[in-house]
Amino acid sequence: MPSVFAMFAFVLLVVGGYGYTNQPAQEPPWTQVVPGFAFSPYQAGQSPIENVEPTVEEINQDLSLLAGKTRAIRTYTVEGQFGEIPALAAAHDINVALGAWLSPDLLANATEVERLLEVAQSPSNNVIRLIVGNEVLLREDLGVQQLTAYLDTVRAATDIPVSTAEPWHVWLKNPELANHVDYLAVHLLPFWEGIALDDAVDFSINTYRQLQKTFPGKPIVVTEVGWPSNGRSIKQAVASQANQAKFLRRFIQRAEQESIVFYIMEAFDQPWKSDLEGSVGGHWGVFDSFRDAKFATDSPIIAIPQWKLLAAASIVVALLMTVLLLIDSAALRDSGRTFLIFNAFAVSSLIIYVIYDFTLEYHTWASVAISVVLLLGVVGVFVIVMSEAHEWAESMWYRNRRRLLSPLSVAASQSESRFQPFVSIHVPAYEEPPEMLIDTLNALARLDYPNFEVIVVDNNTACESTWRPVQAHCAQLGERFRFFHVKPLSGYKAGALNYALEQTCARAEVVAVIDADYRVQPNWLSELAPQFEKPEIAIVQAPQDYRDGSENIFKSICHAEYKGFFHLGMVTRNERNAIIQHGTMTMVRRSVLEEVGRWGVDTITEDTELGLRIFEQGHEAVYIDQSYGRGVMPDNFTDYKKQRHRWAYGAMQILRSHAGQLTGFRDSKLTRGQRYHFVSGWLPWIADGFNLVFTLLAVLWSGLMLFNPIAFNAPPLLISVVPILFFAFKITKLFTLYLVQVKANFKTALAATLAGLSLSYVIGRATLSGLFVGRKIAFIRTPKMASNLAVLQAFNAARDESILALMLLCGVGLIYFQLGFDSRENMAWCLVLVSQSLPFLSSLVVSVLSTAPNRDSVQSQEKTA
């Protein structure tokens, strides 16, 4: 019932939020016939750049649409069929301010001016003004003297008033130009000035008055005035349909009061202008490119007229997400369900709004392709967010753990049962320091369990002085300990484990595996082996743990990061019998191991792949969230990265080879919960891969923005907001879970988050390689007890990450100095670049920390001093 109330509350919140932000705004009605429209009759898909021109019939249809709405139109050229416009307009009782296009091409200019005079003197007799050139001085296509020569020529040949059209500031900068015109043709477009909507009309009127004062007695005609309905922002100016409607309705009222003659910029959207003016260029029309009116002219203005449809779509999608998220949620507290419902509604609202915003843009095939990729990326991000939110909820807001055995219940089960199966402990080794491996064997010798053997398989160690001491020590420990040095032996660790299986005592019912650096506790087998009395149990797993976490700063943060998986992820996965089997501190029923085909040699993560094969046969696993053994961690950042690369690459190998079983297209006994956890558990790693692609594309796009800022604007605000929110969500989740569930202090939680971020690049590379390349790579052993890296080596260990971070931050600096933060889109995009750089900077920080001296050596130096 609380979940129903929560859903109802969020439904009200969505509807109320949309309703509040879309309250009808009362604005002056636009009921009168306006003096004029700027008129470019290009239809959707047409462009003067590509020489795809409108037909005479299409031009006439546009004029018929404007008939009765305006007294005049303003044109820009008389070339080709555009010279027919005055005659066509006369039939609709529309006058024409006829324009001639001037460019650096002097021969073309001569032809254009000649045709202008010819058309102006045509029998239609509805050409009331001539405009020789449009923003010629602004574009610097011609000099003032060249332009005035054309003006003087035309004025001498006609008695129709002549001018040239320029923005207001160009007239003020070149006052001598007024001596060569009959009136000032002025562009007043406060959007380009970055003026806020509420100040835009006053700005326009005040600018008009300034021109009147500067040029007394000279008539002024505003030949372009308007506001775009979509596109990037500039300073305080925001492009939207509502803002366009508000500006025009306010300006028309003021212009009528001030007796200003004006031409609205413009009648119809011109998508082709986006190539010249950026994303905003195609959205200045009162009608869109399909000739549909964008807004009402006399009723209250609503920011999103379709808001009720968007709200309904958001709610439907949210409810579908909620149903999926709350499957098997009986163990969640009400607060956990509410958290999931909140995420469902937040994500659905964003998805629907992103799609809605997408529909407002004009698209070419190229932009559609790019946009589809971006939309798929956004949807992918939201899928990952929902799976992460699900794990977050199940980690923090659970009523009870249905399958997790506590140490007390383990002990109780042991005391109630005398079942003590024979356990064969396998220790694979390769080039391991002999003193470390001997320490591991001594710990095994102290086990308080009666029925076990230890098989050490040293595979392919070259130096005899490395493995001989271990062989001798096994002999000293007694007949329970058997040592095998095998060379050659293929299959890496899996090959060694399969070899050990062949040497296993016939009485053994359970095979246990530990790594060569693990020091187990005496009660390991006595507390866990009795679980195999239940015939359905095939795997009993304890977490990996480490004994050298306090050795130095680097290992401290690594230790904190490891805890997240073993004390959070594994615990939630265990609830649905979907743990990741890892190749140390694991125990597996021997008969099942033989049944599923032993350890797999076709993957570098043979432990996880074996566990999945066991689940596919319908067996169960038990996870005990208590440490029974501790090993040693990688000694430097390079080895830390290699280890995670192996894990991530191996996971992708498994995903490829078991795709049929995980998706249900191939027969298996996997449950829905197991499929969910194996796929969703690897989604964050896959996200790191695609995020790496996104980073490279972001660097490329930033370069294009700097090279051609008009053609390549910053991405739309929503596209930038999504990765920023995703990054914030990811960091908040990590930090909160470490702080609350792992019971880490603030410093440790921060360190764990830093370490997790530092691996983003290597995980991204590994997942992309594993998913799309898929070649078999060698098993890379994680070296133990190695010397620390020097500082220069540490920088080299994070070389790629450092280069990417530098490129991203340089992009931010160059965008700021070259393009500025006048646009909200530019600023948001730079925030994206900064957020993308943080994981790479984390890699450099962690790598440098790995060079810090061990605490024992520092203390020793202090004592010596």
TrEMBL record:
Broad class of enzyme this protein falls into = transferase
Q: Which residues cross the membrane?
A: 307-327, 339-356, 362-386, 682-704, 710-732, 744-763, 802-821, 828-849
Give the GO molecular function terms.
hexosyltransferase activity; hydrolase activity, hydrolyzing O-glycosyl compounds
- On the tree of life, the source organism's domain of life is Bacteria
In Pfam terms, one family for this protein is: Glyco_hydro_17
Q: Which SUPFAM superfamilies match?
A: (Trans)glycosidases (SSF51445), Nucleotide-diphospho-sugar transferases (SSF53448)
User: What is the membrane topology here?
Assistant: Multi-pass membrane protein
Q: Which residues form the Glycosyltransferase 2-like domain?
A: 511-716
Protein name (Swiss-Prot/TrEMBL): Beta-monoglucosyldiacylglycerol synthase
Q: Does the keyword Protein biosynthesis apply?
A: no
State the organism named in the record. Limnobacter thiooxidans
Intracellular or extracellular location(s): Membrane
- What are its GO biological-process terms? carbohydrate metabolic process
Coarse class of the protein's main subcellular location: membrane
Against PANTHER family, the record matches this protein to: BETA-(1-3)-GLUCOSYL TRANSFERASE, CELLULOSE SYNTHASE CATALYTIC SUBUNIT A [UDP-FORMING]
